[in-house]
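User: Round two. Same drill as before: sequence, then structure, for each protein.

Assistant: Same drill it is. First protein:
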Amino acid sequence: MAPAAPSPPFRRPGHSQIDLPPRDPLLAGCAGGVRRAGSSSAIPSQSARVDRRRGPVSPPASEATPAASPELPEDILMIVLATLEIPDLMRAGCVCASWRSAYTALRSLDKHKQAQTPCLLYTSESAGEHVACLYSLVEKRVYRLTLPEPPLRHRFIIGSSLGFLVTVDDRSEMHLVNPITGQQIALPSVTTIEYMKPIFDDTGSVHEYEYPSHSARRAFFTPSIMPRCELRECFQFKAFVFHDTSAGSYIAVLIHRPYTHLSFARVGDDKWTLLEPHCDYQDCTYKDGLLYAASTTGEIHAFDLSGPDVTMKIIKGGDEGFDPDAVHIVQAPWGGLLLVSRLKEFDDPDEDVDPKIPVPNTREIKLHKVDDGAERLVEVDCLPEHVLFLGLNDSLCLSAIDYPALKGNHAYFTDDQQYNQARKSSRRDIGVVGFGNYNSKEDLVSPQLWSNWPSPVWITPSLTLMKLPPNDRWLSGPLCGLPKIEEGTLRGLFANLGIPISIGPTGMLQCLKK
């Protein structure tokens, strides 16, 4: 059996990332890549503009001639644009050349508004396979964005952090994709997770996986063989990408089965590292070099990822009687941690849905304050002037004062049900609920806008590009998302460039010294 080819590290733009759309994201916004649904154009009317080459256009004599408005200095215009939500900012960059210049400068300096209001990202059959729809809670409007290959409707969405979606393609490989900028980055291969065993065909390509029979070095059940496209149905649970401010880099974290363990990868890693020996994790957050992970029993563990050797500290042990249907761990704006539990009812499925699996329906959300070393959780009744965002996203607690479009003392939630893959055609568990008054649950929008699969997710729009260090090993593994190039074509391409190469039995390419 051939060994697995080493997986590439986080792939940097311009090399092993999947091809970006052949468009400037801003121009795409004007032309239809980011536009209001149902609008024929996002570009303001040209009739009132001034042509600087010919001077102002004279109006008919019957009209009053308004005084020409001088252009704002670029630094003043940048201050104004920096206050906008990203959809408005991108449209503002389409107004004229000077506004586009201010927009470009604002973006290159990373001075645009950082505190963006989360939006609901979803797909719609009518919008097309490559289109993501973004529902703005500020404007109560929908924007459409065209994403790179593979089609979003063919992927699973397993997370959302820092403006990136974490998706799984039909080969069960994972990618980060920013729906605003189009930037897409391949994460280390699923074959590098400690107990995942790839099975190769005669050409050296992975075509099946041996689903693990053990976890944390303990045997649990007989291994099973499954096609590469089916692994994602039962393996990946939830994923995150965190900014490690101390190192100026990024860390990806994956909760995966069996038994919802944790693995992580830093930028530059070509494989995942398993965090042993605990399990049953449901959510994570990251702060100051510490990865906080919450389990279904109410346990909270802190993993120190800042050094070469990972250490773990138990922040809080299990709580007897704590038995929610879902758990979230949230960084509070005042500096502490909140453990949020969701209690659900399970309704009968719709008659036309197959298979007949009960549909979860969030009926109550409870808040608990986390005290380091405390034996029991302390329940909190409400969150005055604060808002929670819960689901497959990196769980958020925001100030309603800073985000006036949001309802204080409420939670905005989407599906986080771990068995979503088995009920793709069932309705989603999405809504808004007030703390302390659980009869206040309401629909986010009616009628429903989204397709039920892939699951809609909260995302905080971001124009920031993930800057990755140069890496000379980007050809050391499969280019996720790209079609396979025949060996003869590949050899001819490099021969024309005068570069001698060798290609191993697994398809790994190596450049030879002249």
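Second protein:
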Amino acid sequence: MLNMIFAWVLVIQIFFFSFCFFFPPIHGSLQSTDTKHDKGLHLMSRISLPPSPAPEAVSPSYNPTTIFNVRSYGAIGDGVTDDTQAFKLAWDTACQTEDSEVLVPKGHTFMIQSTIFTGPCKPGLKMQIDGTLMPPDGPDSWPRNNSKRQWLVFYRINEMSMQGTGVIDGRGEKWWNLPCKPHKGFTGTTQPGPCDSPVAIRFFMSSNLSVIGLKVKNSPQFHFRFDNCQNVYIESLNIKTPALSPNTDGIHIENTNNVKLYNSVISNGDDCVSIGAGCYNVEIRNITCGPSHGISIGSLGIRNSRACVSNITVKDSIIKHSDNGVRIKTWQGGSGSVSRVTFQNIHMDTVRNPILLDQYYCLTKKCPNQTSAVHISDILYSKIKGTYDVRSPPMHFACSDSMPCTNLTLSEVELLPAQGKFVSNPICWSAYGTVQTLTIPPVFCLLGGTPEMLPQNGKERC
């Protein structure tokens, strides 16, 4: 019995020794260092565990745009058929839908009568113009009961964008040829007759607007006009009209604030940009302007009116082959002020009046002398360089006797004649200011100090 027990013990020892020899202990990467989480987990199961499942994708939260194609509402787009009602129907439907788009598809030309697109609308409204828009061809084709002062009007709109790759063609030639237009009369004078001409696109009492990427040409009068608007963003426009087309300002703003105008090309028969009364916080940058009448503040103070303009910046731009460069123009008899204006880093190429400040603006040369005037102060001209047309002096500061211009500052101004070597002297009248650096030509005519006559009452101040 004892021998049998001994034999079983021997067998067990041999088996244990063989097991240890052929299956040594496992070390290294198969052993977890995190005993807290691996406790009780079988060794081989840790090797074959699948990777943790990826977290579920979270869908981005956005509202898809609802598209209202004008052709789906009956627009033909053959350039002849009147598509006005189809546009109105598409607009009225989109206006009541949040994040909507009125689509003007490419490959079609849509003729639209004078129309007012009215708000208020739901936020996020877009007008995507990829085709061509145009009005009736000239005043004789204009319906008798429709206003001849405006074509497309957007009224009481908040948060709207107008953009696209299309063209807005104002078909303005027949309007420019009206006898009343200044360039058509005898020796440049006007002749009697109807003279109303439509602004192509007007925004009125609207806010949070953006106009991007459009091509606009041949407007009968102003191409864009913004009245009583705020928070306006304009970028990458191309506006083109012949140099002799009268009153075809590229962009005009009036009683409008917080405006940004960037990266656009404008050539026309009047001001590339004109800034009227009641405007402040306006930034204009990287504009190529010309042929044109330049970039202007004014005219202000017409018919003894009060005008307030402030915080205007024009910079990093080019003005070429134009009647004026940067200009401030006011009528005699007005009141109010223009202040805190910066013209900076502007290149002039053959410009007739590169720097012009005129408080005696008059279209007929028969304006009566008046004592009151819009007060002009705190104007900076910095890094204005290039060439000027020798028919006019490169700098002209004509200020009111009773309300002189004050705190004009010139820095790094270099203007040379486009032809010849004779450099004209600047002209100054009742203009007070300083020259911070040497200018070409030298400016010795600015008055130093402070004039005795300055705005005193509330009517003259803003």
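Helices lie at 2-22, 35-38, 43-47, 84-95, 173-176.

User: Perfect.
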